[in-house]
UniProtKB/TrEMBL annotation:
Residues 569-579 have a biased composition (Acidic residues). Residues 1-19 form the signal peptide. This is Serine/threonine protein phosphatase. InterPro entries: Calcineurin-like_PHP, FA58C, Galactose-bd-like_sf, Metallo-depent_PP-like, PAPs-like, PAPs_C, Purple_acid_Pase-like_N. Pfam families: F5_F8_type_C (PF00754), Metallophos (PF00149), Metallophos_C (PF14008). Residues 21-46, 567-616 are annotated as: Disordered. The lineage of its organism: Bacteria, Pseudomonadati, Myxococcota, Myxococcia, Myxococcales. PANTHER family: ACID PHOSPHATASE RELATED (PTHR22953), PURPLE ACID PHOSPHATASE (PTHR22953:SF153). GO terms for molecular function: acid phosphatase activity; metal ion binding. PROSITE patterns: FA58C_3, PROKAR_LIPOPROTEIN. Residues 37-178 form the F5/8 type C domain. The keyword NAD does not apply.
Length: 616
């Protein structure tokens, strides 16, 4: 009462004197706090528990303001902390990261056993337009309580508080958004699939989930944003090799999926769709010469699969399944050791010379479901976009003479590549293939690739070229033609990333003047982050260290043409993606089944290269 009396006395005498001390600003604790009853299970770090709520994970939380008790306090599972702010109409907002199916909100009010709070819960899909879902008063309790509303899809949940029955302070200890039922389990149930799901051709509006079953059946994939699997699609026909296409997706969103096949249900996994051209960021990894099923591949994968380095997509630079690229070797040397990563990170591959050992890479094509946007729809070479980056995948085996004319020709591939690069509007361009244009490793530079495609890369502004083949890491200086670029030329760095798992090899010569850095001691992969006008590429070793860093910078011009084109991008993407390889089981393989176990290709002899045409 002392503070209230002081306020009244000063107000009464304000017109006579101005010497009264200003009263302290009110706070949410301007009267002695009353001990709160401890909810069951609560403690110093009690978790929020309430009935009728399957709690969803909040990705970010914001508020219209605070008094020092910040919004993040409502997500710390501690009922002793809070968000608080004064005034009618202040709000707290949850961002779930993607649209979810919501049925309610659980709240624990600070000092909720003393006063009832007047509040409104609203939801939104875009963070701008909100629809009221609930309005009312809180129950007179300090325990968590759930308010329910009609089911709806939303990404944002806003709690607007209009004071309480005691004052106009608004204090929330914890808040969560609720879905109707528990999310699907992340554990697989039933017998193990002989090949677990792996993601292929993930685009803006579609994705392919491929897998194999031991018995012939017609599987179903259930999918949706976040953990709300509201859509499903059937393979349509029975078989044991499956590739099921998910359609109707939105760009840059996170989708969850489960596979139901032959009485088996895989655990929930998630992936991100490609972002629009207006996006400024992208994160991808790349490595070649990794498909051994051996010890060093496992060490590289252990690092790549950590949260710090897990990217949005993986570029596989060839020699993906040693020694001969057979179907059994793809199973044992690629899909089995990399299953955990490939369930959530789509792989965009290019064929290596070891894949060409078996029927000119036909098992490679049978195991991959890649964009089919070259004139032949062959998947041997293709392109795709991911946010600000245009990716160009070439079949260097075709260019150096390992393919018969009915499969692939240099002239056709080169003509397609030029047309593709000329049509590109993305600010960054990355080309990848197997045989290196610049290398001082055992095989040396592949001059056909350099002289046939280098001028195209220079003409159309390719920023980075990634290759494998030599079992080492090497980064060139910016190159132009057959030399290091001059100060007036726009050079291109060429990187050999053949250190993904196959036995490393000594360099054939001393380090040439055009090499910026080379290493044949460290196994690893390349991590690349594009952020606006900066591209940063790092070689990450199997011991989780950064061995090399390349930074490229450019000024991005946002032309009116690009902005206008982006308005039609979703429709165009959907039309283009409809041309991807039709999914479905294909069990009529001529290749004989492997008898007995497939040993790892973990020795120099097992990854030795077959003879191929000499560089020209």
């Amino acid at each position: 009462m002392r503070n209230r009396l002081l306020v009244s006395t000063c107000l009464l005498g304000a017109w006579l004197v101005s010497g009264c001390e200003s009263p302290p600003a009110p706070t949410d604790s301007d009267s002695p706090p009353v001990a709160l009853p401890t909810p069951p299970g609560a403690g110093e770090e009690a978790s929020l528990a309430a009935s009728n709520c399957n709690q969803l994970v909040t990705k970010a939380v914001t508020a219209s303001g605070d008094d020092g008790n910040v919004a993040a306090n409502t997500q710390d599972d501690d009922l002793a902390t809070r968000w608080s702010a004064q005034g009618t109409g202040v709000w707290l907002q949850l961002d779930l990261g993607s649209a979810q199916t919501l049925t309610g909100t659980t709240l624990a009010w600070h000092r909720g056993n003393e006063r009832q709070n007047h509040f409104v819960v609203s939801t939104s899909t875009d963070g701008s337009t909100f629809t009221q879902a609930y309005a009312g008063d809180s129950a007179l309790t300090a325990a968590a309580q759930t308010v329910t509303f009609s089911s709806r899809s939303a990404r944002y949940v806003r709690v607007t508080v209009n004071g309480n029955t005691v004052n106009d302070w608004n204090s929330i200890a914890e808040v969560r958004a609720c879905s109707a039922s528990a999310p699907p389990s992340t554990s697989d149930s039933g017998a193990a699939l002989p090949r677990l799901p792996y993601l292929q051709s993930v685009k803006q509006t579609s994705a392919i989930v491929a897998f194999r079953t031991a018995n012939s059946c017609n599987p179903t994939v259930r999918y949706g944003e976040g953990t709300s699997l509201t859509s499903s699609v059937s393979a349509g026909v029975t078989g044991t090799r499956h590739a099921v296409k998910l359609s109707g997706l939105s760009a840059g969103r996170t989708y969850g999926y489960v596979v139901e096949a032959c009485g088996i249900r895989t655990g929930l996994r998630s992936f991100q769709t490609s972002t629009l051209s207006t996006a400024t960021k992208a994160h991808f990894t790349a490595m070649g010469d990794f498909g051994t099923g051996g010890s060093m591949q496992a060490k590289v994968m252990a690092v790549m699969n950590t949260p710090a380095w897990r990217s949005e997509l993986l570029l596989a630079l060839g020699d993906n399944a040693y020694p001969d690229g057979t179907d059994a070797e793809f199973q044992e040397h690629l899909f089995t050791p990399m299953a955990g990563l490939l369930r959530e990170v789509p792989m965009f591959a290019t064929p290596g010379n070891h894949e060409y050992v078996t029927n000119q890479a036909q098992p490679y094509l049978d195991n991959m479901y890649l964009p089919a946007n070259n004139p032949l729809g062959s998947e041997r070479y293709y392109s795709f976009d991911w946010g600000p980056v245009h990716f160009l995948s070439l079949d260097s085996n075709c260019a150096v003479g390992l393919a018969s004319a009915d499969r692939c020709t240099l002239a056709a591939q080169k003509a397609w590549a030029e047309a593709d690069l000329a049509a590109n509007t993305r600010p960054w361009t990355v080309a990848f293939f197997h045989h290196p244009s610049w290398s001082s490793g055992e095989h040396g530079s592949q001059l056909t690739m350099r002289r046939q495609f280098g001028p195209l890369f220079e003409k159309y502004g390719v920023d980075l070229v990634l290759t494998g083949h030599d079992h080492d890491y090497e980064r060139s200086k910016p190159m132009f033609g057959d030399n290091v670029a001059s100060s007036t030329q726009r050079g291109i760095p060429y990187l050999v990333v053949g250190s993904g798992g196959a036995t490393l090899r000594p360099f054939a010569t001393s380090q040439p003047a055009w090499t910026a850095l080379r290493d044949n001691q460290a196994y690893g992969f390349l991590d690349v982050v594009v952020d606006g006008g900066t591209l940063t590429a790092r070689l990450i070793t199997s011991s989780n260290t950064v061995r090399d860093t390349l930074v490229l910078k450019k000024t991005l011009l946002k032309s009116a043409t690009r902005v206008q084109a982006s308005a039609l991008e979703a429709d165009e993407a959907a039309a283009e993606e409809a041309q991807d390889t039709p999914p479905g089981p294909t069990d009529d393989r001529a290749e004989p089944r492997q008898r007995g176990p497939v040993p790892p290709a973990d020795t120099p002899e097992s990854v030795a290269d077959p003879e191929e045409p000499l560089p020209q």
